[in-house]
Design brief:
The chain is of the alpha+beta class. The chain is 13% helix and 20% strand. The structure holds zinc ion (ZN). Zinc ion binds next to loops.
Length: 69
């Protein structure tokens, strides 16, 4: 498991910012892990569909596979 999320958030913290995160739960052991997500944008501004969160399978910073805890 990489530390990219922590590193990026430490860089953003002085400006009072952080990346959006979501908890991934491992159903087998009940442990959770925070990971980054992307919030989709509307292609058509008239769309009223709720924007969806997209969770990457691999860390967008280093490429390591993202797994639940
Ligand atoms: Zn990483």
């Amino acid at each position: 498991m990489c530390k990219c999320l922590d590193r990026v958030n430490k860089k953003l913290a002085p400006d009072g910012l952080m990346l959006p995160t979501i908890s991934m739960l491992n159903i087998e052991n009940g442990k959770a892990r925070e990971t980054v997500y992307f919030l989709s944008e509307r292609i058509n501004s008239a769309s009223r569909v709720k924007r969806r969160k997209v969770i990457p399978s691999f860390c967008p910073f280093c490429g390591i596979k993202v797994k639940a805890a």
